[in-house]
Design a protein that fits this description.
Chain lengths: 208, 530
């Protein structure tokens, strides 16, 4: 049996490793208002990985299928996003203290809803962010594999060529099914929303 | 009294419709004008060439129309036309994709006093694979929906299988239907596809027909399930069977919820599948089925315009007399174009042409306004006698086509029920959207127009009062042969849309595709081949 490793370090990543040569059909669904909706699909062989290029929170349900002559199409693995009691890193991608403070509050709101173990990465110190001792603050990220999920909170500009290009490609091909988004990092254009909503959007605390 | 322009500017099936005072004045597909088959034209554009001609003939500018409608609810309405027209000052009205399909079929059904069940189904429109509507006294009410993010689509499954067989989606599904007739049941193949598409009450599951079909067919190909013609036919057969079975379950489930609705209207690309339509028509509870002749996205603009017209109190729920809604050419215009060729011209006498048909000649018919929708129904048709087994091969060679689907017949309405089991839904069969089984006595008499295995056929039932010239030639041919049936295929070569202009017909005569041409009141023959 091959290994199916699913993580949410910035974005959903499905890594399939093992000795058995095979091809896998991966479907990414998301629960929206308790209704399961298909977002996208990929096909990859063993010892490959794919990432779904969307950096904000999603209540994902990931299905991995295989096909053989005997069983036809059958599911070999699935994973529903569940970060309860798991380590979640929220990276406050800002050098402005007022933004870091607002986003810290949103991170705590996320923790309270999800019941996860919150770790905040920030260039500001614990005292500056005014958080209690239960929240760990780090300034450097050493091993991403120790986290179930990682979120980057920031105001990401689609003016940068690489960002714009990626966004256009992804928007056209993946996210155009049901609704459109600003970019793969900020679902809504941060120029037109509050600082508070920038984090709320990325952490899935807002209705978009 | 209002003028309504309505258009489809989508990736395929671009069309412009003009409805004036409740009547359909023009309905023109852009492919007839730009000569690019709809399925090959992937650009989003306003059907400008169709518009220019309609404007020239009517003097109605888009800007001056009372209303402009379109079925692009989820897209920016003005996108395709903003740069061309200044429409900001006039009311632009857009309707949901599947509602537009529903309106197109309902307002042309003639079911004005009935409770009508409308089912739409296609490969996706406004994020839905299909909807169910109830209609009564002009009011259309949506009762169920198949959002693309949750459910599956028979049309998309069929389209992707068509691609896996080496053809094009939105264009060649008819070839898969034709190929299916040559295949046979294979439990394994059937079950593979059933895993990825099945009915569950009033929805289809599992989601993602496109991805799952591509994944499945890729593996089947690897394992040799597509290696031979026979194997490909088996794939087509089993997918056709599955789609028929699951759609019938779906129809029956819907019927159980609304048992008093026994008149059925169908629209959307799936219902170009005439074999499926036959199965639906054979359901006991169905009193009558009507499929809109432009059943694909080429019907959307019509639906929008007719709905608007109905709301304005100008359109009634009534049947189409015909779909001759394109452009026509006078004898003089035709004569001028013929001067470029070495042709003879003589008056058209139906009895003489019937005699030529009886002698095996292949004859092009170019009469009146060209058709709206995918079928040639007498305005731009090729007629051949239906009595030869080899006609399929001969015609494919002449037209340089690779049609797998059997050619279709036209039959005099007086004899339709003698030749085919065609007692039900004859109105829809005026537009060649329904298959019937041929009666045993006729199987050997008209082999060129029936499927050699299941004896099904897709007749155009021709009524004298609505298609006089086609009826006349049938009548004359029947007098000679005692066969009230002729073969009718669309007048076009391989890969091209059905012809529009006289010059296109003349080119076919010049190349020898047809032996002679009936063009309005004259017959043209090529001097070089007489």
């Amino acid at each position: 049996m091959n290994n199916f490793n699913i993580t949410f370090n910035s974005m959903p990543k499905i890594n399939i490793t093992g000795q058995i040569p095979a091809e896998y059909f991966i479907e990414i669904y998301e629960y929206v208002n308790e209704e399961k909706e298909l977002i996208t699909d990929f096909t990859i062989p063993t010892n490959n990985y794919i990432c779904f290029l969307r950096e904000w929170y999603g209540d994902y349900d990931i299905h991995i299928w295989e096909w053989n002559e005997k069983e036809g199409l059958h599911m070999v693995a699935s994973h529903r996003y569940d970060d309860k009691n798991k380590k979640v890193l929220i990276n406050l991608d800002t050098y402005h203290l007022h933004e870091a403070l607002i986003w810290t509050n949103k991170a705590i709101e996320y923790r309270d809803i999800h019941g996860c173990e919150l770790i905040i990465k920030s260039s500001f110190k614990k005292e500056e962010l005014c958080v209690d001792s239960s929240i760990k603050i780090i300034t450097e990220l050493n091993d991403i594999n120790e986290y179930y999920a990682i979120y980057n909170i920031g105001k990401y500009d689609t003016e940068f060529e690489w960002n714009k290009k990626l966004t256009e490609t992804v928007l056209d091909k993946v996210w155009n099914k049901n609704r459109t988004y600003c970019s793969y990092r900020n679902p809504r254009d941060w120029h037109y929303i509050s600082i508070d909503d920038v984090a709320g959007d990325i952490l899935g605390l807002n209705e978009i | 009294m209002s003028s309504i322009y309505s258009f489809n500017a989508g990736e395929h099936d671009k069309v412009l419709v003009l409805v004036r005072d409740g009547e359909i004045e023009y309905a023109v597909e852009e492919e007839r004008m730009n000569r690019i088959k709809s399925g090959d034209d992937k650009e989003w554009n306003f059907p400008l060439l169709a518009y220019e001609q309609i404007y020239n003939k009517t003097g109605i500018k888009l800007e001056n129309a009372d209303h402009v409608t379109s079925a692009l609810a989820q897209y920016t309405f003005d996108l395709p036309i903003q740069s061309t027209f200044n429409l900001k000052k006039i009311p632009n009205e857009k309707y949901d994709h599947h509602f537009a399909h529903a309106a197109s079929v309902y307002y042309t059904s003639g079911f004005k006093d009935d409770k009508v069940l409308i089912i739409t189904h296609d490969g996706e429109g406004d994020y839905s694979y299909g909807k169910v509507f109830l209609a009564e006294k002009g009011v259309i009410t949506e009762v169920s929906n198949l959002p693309v993010v949750k459910y599956s689509s028979a049309a998309l499954l069929y389209g992707r299988v068509t691609v896996s067989l080496g053809w094009k989606i939105n264009k060649d599904e008819g070839k898969t239907v034709g190929m299916a007739g040559n295949g046979s049941y294979d439990e394994k193949i059937y079950k593979y596809f059933e895993q990825i598409f099945h009915n569950n009450d009033d929805v289809f599951l599992p989601p993602n027909p496109e991805g799952k079909t591509d994944f499945l067919t890729k593996h089947l190909k690897k394992l040799g399930y597509y290696d031979t013609k026979e194997q490909k036919a088996n794939i087509a057969y089993n997918v056709q069977l599955l789609v028929e079975n699951e759609m019938i379950k779906y129809m029956n489930n819907i019927h159980n919820k609304y048992p008093e609705y026994t008149k059925l209207c169908l629209a959307g690309g799936l219902f170009a599948n005439v074999k499926l339509n036959q199965k639906i028509n054979e359901l006991q509870w169905v009193d009558e089925v009507y499929i809109i002749p432009p059943m694909g996205d080429n019907g959307l603009a019509l639906g929008c315009a007719l709905h608007k017209s109905f709301l304005l109190g100008e359109r009634q729920i009534k049947r189409l007399d015909d779909v001759f809604l394109g452009f026509e050419y006078t004898d003089e215009q035709i004569e001028i174009e013929s001067k470029n060729y070495n042709f003879t011209r003589e008056p058209y006498i139906p009895s003489e042409i019937a005699n030529e048909l009886n002698n095996g000649k292949i004859i092009g018919f170019f009469k009146g306004r060209f058709e709206y929708g995918p079928r040639a129904l007498g305005a731009r048709s090729i007629l051949v006698r239906p009595t030869d087994h080899k006609t399929h091969e001969v015609l494919n060679n002449r037209l340089k086509r690779d049609d797998i689907m059997p050619f279709a017949p036209i039959v005099m309405s007086e004899y339709a029920n003698d030749v085919f089991y065609a007692s039900k839904s004859q109105y829809t069969a005026e537009f060649m959207t329904m298959c019937y089984t041929t009666k045993p006595d006729w199987v050997e008499r008209i082999p060129a127009v029936i499927h050699h295995i299941d004896h099904s056929s897709r007749p155009q039932i021709v009524f004298k009062e609505r298609n006089l010239h086609f009826h006349k030639i049938l009548e004359e041919y029947n007098n000679l042969s005692h066969i009230p049936v002729l073969l009718n295929t669309s007048f076009n070569g391989h890969g091209e849309p059905i012809i529009d202009k006289p010059s296109q017909a003349f080119e076919h005569l010049n190349k020898g595709t047809v032996d002679m041409l009936v063009m309005e009141n004259y017959v043209y023959k090529n001097k070089n081949t007489i």
